[in-house]
Amino acid sequence: MIYPNSKTILEVRNLCASVSGTPILKNMNFTVKSGEIHAIMGPNGSGKSTFSKVLAGHPDYEITSGTVMFEGKNLLELAPEERARAGVFLAFQYPIEIPGVGNSQFLRLTYNTVQTHRGKEELDPLEFDDFVREKMKLLEMREDFLDRSVNAGFSGGEKKRNEILQMSLLEPRLAILDETDSGLDIDALRIVSKGVNYLANKDNAIVMVTHYQRLLDYIVPDFVHVMEAGRIIKSGGKELALELETRGYDWVSDEYKAASRVAA
Amino acid sequence: MSAVVQSNSAYLQSLLAGQHNVATSKQVWLNKLRSNAVETVSELTIPTTRDEEWRFTDLSMLTKVSLQPAHAAIQLGSADIKRFHIKEAATRLVFVDGVYAPKLSNVVAKGIAVSNLAAELAINSVILQQHLGQHVANNGNVFSALNTAFLHDAALIMLPRNVAAKTPVHLLFIATQKEVVNYPRTLVLADNGCEATVIEDYVSLQDEAYFTNAVSEFVLADNARVNHIRIQREGAKAFHIANCAAVLSRSSNYQSVNVAMGARISRYNLNIKMAEGAECSADGLALISGRQLADTHTCIDHAQPNGTSRQLHKCIVGGGAHVVFNGKIMVRHGSSKTDSQQSNHTLLLTDKAHVDTKPQLEIFNDDVKCTHGATIGQLDNEEVFYLQSRGIEKSRARNMLTYAFGAEIIERIPVASLKRSLERTVLEQTSTQL
Description:
B: 2 domains
């Protein structure tokens, strides 16, 4: 939701990034204020997922120019774990399976690590157990979730719910959801969306990266952006997503090219 | 018997010295078994890397260490070995430098016979003669022949028909002396329809060089079910060479997990021979670092139809260590409907860590289902990044993933306290190695 006098959480200026020498992001500009929900859409290969990984600090991407400020800090100077502790959260498109590491053990470790770095109290196993079970109710997760290995043998929907559970534990200022809707059936989509909506408040912000309008029926964005060739070529309100759904992306691309020619 | 046998290898001759001091038994067959083994040894040499079976494992270091047969065991108190106790295993046989230590052992097994061979020789001579040394290959195998040449005692487990042992049996082999050879020996006779869990455990109380040359034989009658857990956690400078033969009768079930983390050089040969409808698993984990070498050779022989075998062997190699895995699956003529799966995954933690792995499928039958696969790799950067993105430091993330890689095997051990203590060891190992 757009609030008056909200603070800027994320400010990306002229960001360029490449992977193995191939430029992917080309002069990306993007600003997020607290309380806002953004959707980044665009065809395959437009750089949406790269952008979300770059924000989280994925080591495969090289930043060639530009700046990213997160709550006044230079985000690009921080290691991935420092970004997480500072309040950046990336819900993965394909969450990693870690057989052999119990989910409850993993969740408690991440929670306590982040808490400690924020100068807050850690929870012992019993306290954490009560705490996490409360959070699990929100996402309608079965209790045996905690006893299983991290994501090992989880269905697509269970993995995504586990991501949002982690989001609820880590209480990020900026949550980036990378195609969280892909591979979800309607039921799982409803549950995941309900969780995200519950966690959204006036102090944090959410950036959804998605192909489909479908997710935006459940999590209503304040802003919709279209990415192409590594930059945002159009921004609008939630109605833009509906227009994309019926008309596709080509017209946005044409409009952008025409505007570029006029500018030139 | 004459023990003056000229070995063609001076080294073997030095190892055989002292053999004739071993008390001869009243059992003529046992004396014969030993003297045959001495003859076999005298016809063989210590294998070199020119032998196909030893291509990757160079034993020249072993031949440079002067070794004697272990002398009378030093006295240990139960406090000295308490840390090796496995809570669930009420029955424990302890061998110190290969010699049975009744005071450290604890036999409470009801309905099953757990004893040392020396005590059972007279009573069970017929059945012992039938099995002892009859399943492990002595021909061409200098190490099993050496063990048999020195055979005078053994851990013996006899499981009667249709009896289920309620608790695991722990066979604890402790090395306390340096520059000696220990010859641990195990014989497990599982009668029709029985069930048991046997833990074979090799530990050390010192860090100097010594040589453990072990032989185990598992004989499963029809429908018998045996879990065999083998933990090799020898001292850092030890040499450990072991031969295990498992012979599976109709519809019997042999589940084995083998963990190798100790010794400077270790080699484990596991040979499983399967009759009709038998099932087996032969899982393993080698976790080594520094300059260690761990070599695992397994052979699963589907000698008859309808057998099922599963094998997951994993290796975690740090430092400049070297791991070897050779997994042979044999499906003989007529062994139709064989169902076999093998996979071998190796995690190399450093640039200097080294692996030689070779799946070896010999299939002489059409109507079978056999799959195998092998991967070798480093930690996956995506997995490390995932953990980092949750606030976990990179080094800790790497430790967790390494641990998790090995834990998949540890989790298959059906003894909770042993599983937990090995998990702790793996965690410690993986956090210091990186």
